[in-house]
From TrEMBL, chain A:
Keyword Manganese in record: yes
Pathway assigned to this chain's UniProt record: Protein modification; protein glycosylation
Protein name: dolichyl-diphosphooligosaccharide--protein glycotransferase
Gene3D superfamilies reported in the protein's UniProt record: 3.40.50.12610
Automatic annotation (TrEMBL), chain B:
Organism taxonomic ancestry: Eukaryota, Fungi, Dikarya, Ascomycota, Saccharomycotina
Protein name: Dolichyl-diphosphooligosaccharide--protein glycosyltransferase subunit 1
Naturally occurring in which organism (per UniProt): Pichia angusta
Membrane topology field: Single-pass type I membrane protein
Record localization: Endoplasmic reticulum membrane
Subunit structure: Component of the oligosaccharyltransferase (OST) complex.
Keyword Endoplasmic reticulum: yes
InterPro entries: Ribophorin_I (IPR007676)
Signal peptide span: none
Pathway participation: Protein modification; protein glycosylation
Primary subcellular site in the record, as a coarse category: endoplasmic reticulum
Function: Subunit of the oligosaccharyl transferase (OST) complex that catalyzes the initial transfer of a defined glycan (Glc(3)Man(9)GlcNAc(2) in eukaryotes) from the lipid carrier dolichol-pyrophosphate to an asparagine residue within an Asn-X-Ser/Thr consensus motif in nascent polypeptide chains, the first step in protein N-glycosylation. N-glycosylation occurs cotranslationally and the complex associates with the Sec61 complex at the channel-forming translocon complex that mediates protein translocation across the endoplasmic reticulum (ER). All subunits are required for a maximal enzyme activity.
Top-level taxon of origin: Eukaryota
């Protein structure tokens, strides 16, 4: 008998059946959330193709291919002589291998079970696949937080809501669409799993969960530099709990297990090495570890000693510890045993720091401070549910609730400093919004009492109004949820699904037109230049050239060697003759520039040019000055009124060389800067040391070849000048001969 | 099988372009000079050439006499086609059934296809056995032995047609030039027929040599230069006819330069992978090309402005701007065009032809590697009898005018299929059987049969490859059953694992 109506008139259902239905519903919800999460990330694959996006993913993809084709140890020892020419890069020791290892493990497992999926497809679809795991991890985390906090009842509703919100929030999708094969793609999943395990281990005080936390922390360390976030947030959580007087053996056990194991394991990653004991980023974790031992000692002493003795001892003890600790820190920093604070770290605290001191960090658009609008853009209505959730956490300050608060505060601050750290804020916003929504719907959808009282006593106006108001509130939030889904889909579709390698445009008749200039040019390089050709381009394109054109590059998106990047910037910013010297020293064969002036592609090199100037000015201030590239009125011009420094710079010449000829004698217009060059001036832009080797269909990519030295040792620029003089004489003669002297007679 | 070899008729070539009239002034045929005989000592009358002790080859030049010898060279495509129409008479006292055909030694490695036919009325199979005789070959001459179907009586005549294709013969001269420059091709051949026998009447016609110019060659002067001058007879450039006796192996070099504003596509490597699936009744073909244009190269870098302003895509240029790939007549689906950096969106169908636009125009010396593929119904290519299947696919699809240096054709037969054999394949260098693990191949993998062919041209498209294999119901069921067993095993294992309790708890 599955169900029956008992003598009180209630429907009784078999509990096992109920359990089954519950399980089924839960499974269905997870399947739906996963489906929504994965499918909304596939816009780019459907619209374009299964292709790796943007810049960094190209390097990760290339590294993954290397790993798949060789062995793990060869990968760790990989010295890549195709990047950072002539230095080369110890790639195996300077990357986080987690992402590549994950893909290659998936690749080998699939191959083993008879599914030899192409490694490119695995890389492209890794991020969507992990996003569905992320929503499960999110469910577990919220469940863990809510189930141990008595006031945050209705735990499953909140957890399911947070899983759903996390699945499609644009803040996370921005880094995990199909093809966005970046460290963050798996790191966010690992971040949430680590946090879930941490909360669980604090709740249970189990070494098992502490060790698991350390394991996933290790995985996180191997995958993303953002692991420092965990390294600091867990100690901070513990520290605040200590201040609140919450010290217990559960915290002690889980923290010590995590710290000891996690630190040891993280040191196994070649790129991290001894950083956990030397870098100041990791000092907080170490300090809290020491503090916990002291607290333990103190609580032992407190139990054994008399109160007066204990107080006296405490004062002496804390004074000694403080002096020794601080002087030790200062000394170690001074002696250089521990690394100084990194530039990126400073820029986390002072948003202007980078712009003033490290232009190379400021030049990256994702390192800019976050505009207010992007909070709404990336998080939609969660941004105002977020504080409510935090408020709920304050109501009952259980250990997990404190964790949520700590994470919320840190996450909000960092998200405000750097656009890309929106990614770390999104999960906690989802937790808080989930808590809020769960509570809200539990109250407002619970209409059992109202219904029964309305049913029993039809005259009761009160219950009817309560019912109505509950319905209105619920309906409003259902609308917000629907709107959220719509907003997320729209943002994903319009803002985050462009591979940026292929540009979509529209024909006059409305049909889609793909602008595929990047691949055209990269493929040309790959097919028609010698295999050891060295291509100089601004560092943005380094990874793409390495990945698609398979040619040696000078600088790429791994920005640790500022001087080398500045050298390339200097070659681009100085005049042709000086640039020639630099290029010959660097052994350049080809130079690649991006020029959007013909079709109005705004992400081109002329728009990035100021960063090249600034970065090289940082090293050679006597030679290059940013001011020289602006007109007297402070305008950034590329037309006839451009400054001499601008007109003579190599970058300018490479971009505009023969630009005028494309307009058949009319005045050429730079469609990005909306400036009109006169045709006579456009004709006078000459190039002597370089020769045009290839220009893509829409002129977005222009490739030049450095000419060989003259056989007679003459200066290439002199030769060019001489040629032009002769040519102009000839054309003058031709013109004078051609032009009939016709006067208009009236 | 043999009669499937068919060269397009030289005169009905669809690509035949208008050939401008020959400017006689351009012809400087003072190049003519002495006819020289190769190794006259070796090949004097009545001499038997002894190769080794147990094999003697009879190459008596007085066995045959070429009564009429007409030779046509076709340079309309990116390679050279030659057709020799020979009326020969047996002048030996006894019947003979072998005719030796000589080809100049400098093209020895470039003969892509050699076909000899006997023109006899009411004859069903005019194709003749022809094979190279390496023992006879010298650095200057390569001989082919043509086996006649029956001995020819003394004093009677036969009418043989020998056609062959020579690759790698045309090269641009000059090698480099500015964009839009006229492409002049240099072509070297012999002015006379290099025959092993006396020739009584001879004529040479060259088809497709636009604006020809003969290079002046310095030669001994025992020949009247005026006699070997060319004349233009639209659309041919004609030498002769000469009504005089040419001695065996008479030779006179000819170096011709002519204009051809078409690219010279050359495929360094073509990989053709056929994936056979009986379950889905589909034959998937994937072709990987390594294409080069052997035409005139740019003397400086590629200037996009000049390319745009010159409107070069509107007129014939020696640049490959699009690649036409005729699809098989049967229905095709899932057509794709990718290269090593992803999908190339610029492709379209036109009259059952796939028109591919490469990412960039392919100038002389430039390379472009790409992959195309499509799926067709397998039943259109398969003849089955019980478990035995014969698959018949064209040797080549693809480009309309191209030379293939190396072609690797692979057949991926379904897992569990047994390869039985194959029919004669042209220019086959080697073949091997291997295994390839593809989707859900758990036991032995797809049976992969690979044939490596060398030196092909697009006109061999009409030739088919036949392979035979055995694949029955047992084989068809093997894969789903194995997969099911593995999944069952995995689920069973999961069930067992769930029974194990590893938790550490104080026992209650």
């Amino acid at each position: 008998m599955v169900s029956l109506i008992d003598n009180e008139g209630y429907l009784r259902v078999d509990p096992t059946l109920l359990k089954l239905v519950k399980l089924l519903l839960l499974t269905l919800i997870f399947v739906s959330v996963s489906f929504a999460a994965v499918s909304s990330r596939l816009f780019s694959v459907i619209r374009f193709e299964s292709i790796i996006h943007e810049f960094d993913p190209w390097f990760n993809f290339r590294a993954t291919k290397h790993l798949v084709n060789t062995s793990f140890y060869e990968f760790l020892n990989w010295f890549d002589d195709k990047t950072w020419y002539p230095l080369g890069r110890v790639t195996g020791g300077t990357l986080y291998p987690g992402l590549m290892v994950t893909s290659s493990v998936i690749y080998h497992i699939l191959k083993f079970v008879g599914l030899p999926v192409d490694i490119r497809n695995i890389c492209v679809l890794l991020a969507p696949a992990f996003s569905s795991i992320t929503s499960v991890a999110m469910y577990l985390l919220t469940l863990e937080v809510t189930s141990t906090t008595p006031t945050l009842k209705h735990k499953k509703t909140a957890a399911l809501f947070s899983a759903f919100l996390m699945g499609i929030t644009p803040g996370y999708i921005s880094r995990s669409v199909a093809g966005s094969y970046d460290n963050e793609a798996i790191a966010i999943t690992l971040l949430l799993v680590t946090f879930f395990l941490w909360v669980k281990s604090v709740n249970t005080g189990s070494i098992f969960y502490g060790a698991l936390t350390a394991m996933f922390y290790f995985y996180m360390v191997s995958a993303w530099g953002g692991y420092v976030f965990i390294t600091n947030i867990i100690p901070l959580h513990v520290f605040i709990l200590l201040l609140m007087g919450r010290f217990d053996y559960k915290i002690y056990t889980s923290y010590c297990t995590w710290y000891a194991l996690g630190t040891l394991m993280s040191m196994q990653i070649p790129f991290v090495g001894f950083l956990p004991i030397r870098s100041n980023d990791h000092m907080a974790a170490f300090g809290v570890f020491g503090l916990l031992q002291l607290v333990l000692l103190v609580s032992y002493l407190k139990d054994t000693l008399s109160p007066t003795k204990f107080v006296r001892l405490m004062f002496a003890f804390s004074a000694v510890v403080a002096t020794v600790g601080i002087s030790g820190l200062v000394l170690a920093t001074k002696m250089g045993w521990i690394a100084p604070w990194t530039g990126r770290f400073y820029s986390l605290w002072d948003t202007n720091y980078a712009k003033v001191h490290i232009p190379i960090i400021a030049s990256v658009s994702e390192h800019q401070p976050t505009p207010w609008s992007s909070f709404f853009f990336d998080l939609n209505f969660m941004i105002w549910l977020f504080p409510v959730g935090v408020y709920f956490c304050f109501q009952e300050l259980s250990n997990p609730a404190v964790f949520v608060i700590v994470y919320s505060v840190l996450g909000s601050y960092f998200a405000g400093v750097m656009v890309r750290l929106m990614l770390t804020l999104a999960p906690i916003v989802c937790v808080c919004a989930g808590i809020t929504l769960g509570r809200l719907f539990n109250i407002y959808l619970d209409v059992k009492d109202e219904l029964s009282s309305w049913w029993n006593n039809k005259e009761s106006q009160d219950s009817l109004f309560t019912l109505l108001s509950k319905m209105v509130v619920s309906a409003t939030f259902v609308f917000y949820l629907v709107f959220y889904v719509q907003h997320c889909t729209w943002v994903t579709s319009n803002a985050y699904s462009s591979p940026s390698v292929v540009l979509a445009s529209r024909n006059p008749d409305g049909s889609q037109l793909l602008i595929d200039d990047y691949r055209e040019a990269y493929y040309w390089l790959r097919m028609n230049t010698p295999e050891d050709a060295k291509v100089m381009a601004w560092w943005d394109y380094g990874y793409q050239i390495g990945g698609m054109a398979d040619r040696t590059t000078f600088v790429d998106n791994n920005t640790w060697n500022n001087t080398h990047i500045a050298t390339v910037g200097r070659a681009m910013a100085t005049s042709e003759d000086k640039a020639e010297v630099i290029m010959r020293q660097l052994d350049v064969d080809y130079v690649l520039v991006i020029f959007g002036g013909l079709i109005g592609y705004s992400g081109d090199d002329i728009n990035k040019f100021l960063w090249m100037v600034r970065i090289s000015e940082g090293i050679w201030p006597e030679e290059i000055s940013e001011r020289n590239y602006f007109t007297d009125r402070g305008a950034y011009r590329v037309d006839d009124l451009a400054t001499d420094a601008m007109k003579n710079s190599l970058m300018y010449k490479l971009s505009f060389y023969r630009f005028g000829d494309a307009y058949n004698g009319l005045d050429p217009v730079d469609r990005v800067r909306q400036q009109k060059l006169s045709s006579s001036y456009a004709k006078s832009i000459t190039l002597d040391v370089m020769e045009e080797a290839f220009t893509s269909e829409n002129w977005i990519v222009r490739i030049y070849k450095l000419k060989n030295r003259d056989n007679f040792g003459r200066d290439l620029i002199d030769i060019g000048k001489k040629d032009r003089k002769q040519q102009s004489k000839r054309t003058k003669r031709m013109l004078s001969r051609k032009k009939p002297t016709l006067d208009l007679r009236v | 099988m043999g009669n499937m070899y068919r060269l397009d008729d030289l005169h009905k070539d669809p690509n035949q372009s208008a050939i401008s009239t020959l400017a006689p002034t351009l012809l400087r045929s003072r190049a003519s000079s002495s006819m020289y005989t190769q190794d006259p000592d070796m090949l004097s009358d009545d001499e038997l050439i002894s190769i080794d002790s147990d094999r003697r080859v009879d190459l008596r030049s007085n066995v045959w006499e070429n009564v009429k010898y007409e030779r046509i060279i076709d340079v309309l495509k990116s390679y050279v086609k030659e057709r020799h129409v020979i009326h020969a008479r047996n002048i030996a006292p006894e019947p003979t059934s072998e005719y030796y055909f000589a080809v100049p030694g400098f093209v020895r490695d470039d003969v892509a296809l050699f076909v000899a036919t006997l023109e006899v009325p009411r004859q069903q199979e005019p194709l003749l056995q022809a094979e190279r005789v390496p023992e006879l070959s010298s650095p200057d001459v390569v001989y082919y032995k043509i086996e006649l179907p029956y001995p020819i009586a003394p004093k009677s005549q036969i009418h043989i047609t020998v056609s062959y294709v020579l690759t790698n013969q045309l090269e641009p001269a000059p090698e480099k030039g500015p964009m839009g420059a006229e492409q002049r091709l240099f072509f070297k051949t012999t002015k006379l027929a290099l025959s092993a026998y006396n020739t009584l009447s001879y004529e040479l016609k060259i088809l497709g040599a636009n604006k020809p110019q003969e290079m002046a060659l310095e030669l001994p002067s025992d020949v009247d230069p005026e006699e070997f001058k060319a004349s233009a007879r639209d659309p041919f450039l004609v030498y002769g006819p000469y009504q005089k006796t040419f001695k065996p192996l008479s030779n006179l070099p000819l170096a011709l330069i002519f204009t051809k504003n078409q690219p010279l596509p050359f495929v360094n490597l073509l990989k053709r992978d056929f994936w056979v699936s009986h379950w889905s009744d589909s034959l998937q073909l994937e072709e990987y090309y390594e294409l080069t244009n052997k035409g005139i190269q740019l003397d400086r870098g590629f200037s996009r402005v000049d390319w745009m302003n010159g409107r070069y895509t509107m007129r014939p240029t020696p640049v490959i701007t699009s690649i036409q790939i005729p699809l098989p007549k049967v229905e095709t689906s899932e057509v794709y065009f990718v290269d090593k950096v992803g999908n190339v969106s610029t492709s379209l169908f036109h009259n059952n032809e796939l028109v591919l636009k490469p990412r960039f125009p392919i100038f002389g010396g430039w390379n472009y590697n790409f992959t195309v593929g499509w799926t067709s119904p397998l039943s259109k290519f398969l003849k089955s009898e019980g478990d035995l299947h014969v698959l018949r696919v064209p040797l080549l699809d693809g480009l309309n005018d191209a030379t293939y240096d190396k072609v690797e054709i692979s057949f991926f037969l379904p897992e569990g299929a047994r390869f039985v054999g194959f029919d004669d394949i042209l220019n086959l260098k080697e073949w091997k059987i291997d295994h390839k693990f593809s989707y859900l191949d758990i036991t032995t993998g797809h049976t992969q049969v690979t044939f490596v062919l060398e030196n092909l041209v697009d006109e061999m498209r009409n030739v088919d490859i036949l392979i035979e294999y055995e694949y029955g119901l047992a084989g068809m069921l093997r894969k789903p059953v194995t997969a099911a067993v593995y999944i069952f095993g995995a689920l069973l294992g999961l069930l067992l694992l769930r029974k194990i309790d590893l938790s550490i708890k104080p026992s209650a």
